[in-house]
Amino acid sequence: MNTFAGIREIIKNDNELVHDEPFIVGFEYQIKETNRRQSIFLAEIKDDNDLRYLRIETTVIPLDHYDAEKCLRINEKLRIGYLAVGDLGGSPYIKMCHNIPYSNLNMEEVERAISYIARLADDFEFEFEDGADIF
């Protein structure tokens, strides 16, 4: 898999897209074990050397609902994905992200990473939002 268009088509075949632009798509990932959903966004990004990556990301919780120092301590322990801060409606939110270089990209890896990121983010959301399923 070496194009974002190819990834989009595979994702689109299995999911209803809630966001669809040339280099970003969004969909609701169904977590079968809990019957909860997690909004997932896929985007193509480039580094300073023009190497392309597929970014998988999801919004987790408002930043003010969790200690930023704890986020950094969690980041140190994560082997897949990382926590970041992004804005949503002008407010800072914790996001869970993961980047896969196109040179290593295959749909099995993408699907595994989406599942892992969605479940981990949903676990955070469940714990820190008193069981609410807001993302």
Describe the structure.
- It contains three helices and six strands; from the N terminus they run H-E-E-E-E-H-E-E-H.
- With 135 residues, it is α+β, with helices and mostly antiparallel strands.
- It has a six-stranded antiparallel β-sheet with strand order 1-2-3-4-6-5.
- A hairpin with a 5-residue loop joins strand 3 and strand 4.
- The longest helix has 22 residues.
- The model has no long low-confidence stretch (mean pLDDT 88).
What would the average pLDDT be, to the nearest integer?
A: 88
Helix content, binned percent: 25-40%
First-last Cα distance: 28 Å
Spans of at least 5 consecutive residues whose pLDDT stays below 50 are none
Counted up, domains total 1
How many distinct beta strands? 6
CATH topology: Yope Regulator, Chain: A
Order of helices and strands: HEEEEHEEH
Structural class category:
alpha+beta
Sheet-strand content, in percent, reads: 35-45%
Specify the overall morphology: globular
CATH first level: Alpha Beta
The rounded Rg comes to 15 Å
Quaternary organisation = single chain
Q: Going across the major beta sheet, what is the strand order?
A: 1-2-3-4-6-5
CATH architecture: 2-Layer Sandwich
Briefly characterize the structure.
This protein has 135 residues and is of the alpha+beta class.
List keywords for this structure.
single chain, 135 residues, alpha+beta, Yope Regulator, Chain: A, 6-stranded antiparallel beta sheet, 32% helix, 39% strand
